[in-house]
Amino acid sequence: MPRVTTDQIRQMKARGERIPMLTAYDYASARILDTAGVPMLLVGDSLGMVMLGHDSTLPVTLDDIIHHTKSVVRGSEHALVIADMPFGTFQISPEETMRQAVRIMKEAGPQAVKLEGGVRSAASVRLLTEAGIPVMGHVGMTPQSVNVFGGFKVQGKTEQAARALLADVAALEEAGAFAVVLELVPAELAKLATERATIPTIGIGAGPDCDGEVQVLHDILGLFPDFTPRHTKRYAELGKLMSEAVTTYMSEVRERAFPTKEQSAHLDAAVIKALRRERKETA
Ligand code: KIV
Q1: pTM to 2 decimals?
Q2: Exposed site from 40, 141, 206, 264, fewest CB < 10 Å?
Q3: Catalytic residue among 130, 183, 252, 262
């Protein structure tokens, strides 16, 4: 089965088929998600927080994204892989954005990139899509602007802010984006944006009426101990399972219950005999 294409993602909206998407940052989890059939994997700059331990996404570098995207591409065969453009790589000019996106596409091999901002990023989105690089937009609470928002807060609550968000989605669509993430916006506004847009909207903290949903893998699996965003749901407690597993492992090592003969390689009896004989002779 070939990889999912951006056209197929757009067709899913046209058919009213919901679009699940998850973040992935490494080979092993990409393999699991891809085998489960997740159609879109995002190598999000959230990796700065959940993989690297930073308190925001701002320190993430282009090399970080390239490094993690390579492993997700190697770990997947069917999913559409989208690499996030980190802070500082698309804010300077459309030409600079193009240079950085070309590095991602050439060195890491994803099928698309994502960048934050609507109207303000539209010129870059146009340049990239015209050059053959599919782009996913990202509006609402764009985490790279956390210092302007004063925290990870819901955006688009006033009439003016809601109109600005709708204009952002329209600008991205017009510039050629194949889909747009709506992060932390009121559910009613996300519904309106979804009805008006011909491209799929992918929500996160944006209510139930977007065309698709994206979540940070570590949040839904209970793997990120620092905090749990309100908009997420825990589908498993893998952090607890890991803790129990390593506690059992430590006890078994201490009590000599692991490793046993089963996990060991063995010498032929003749070789052991020869070694023993040699020892006796030299004694
Ligand atoms: O970096 C990320 O994981 C994201 C998603 C939350 C949309 O941008």
Answers
A1: 0.95
A2: 264
A3: 183
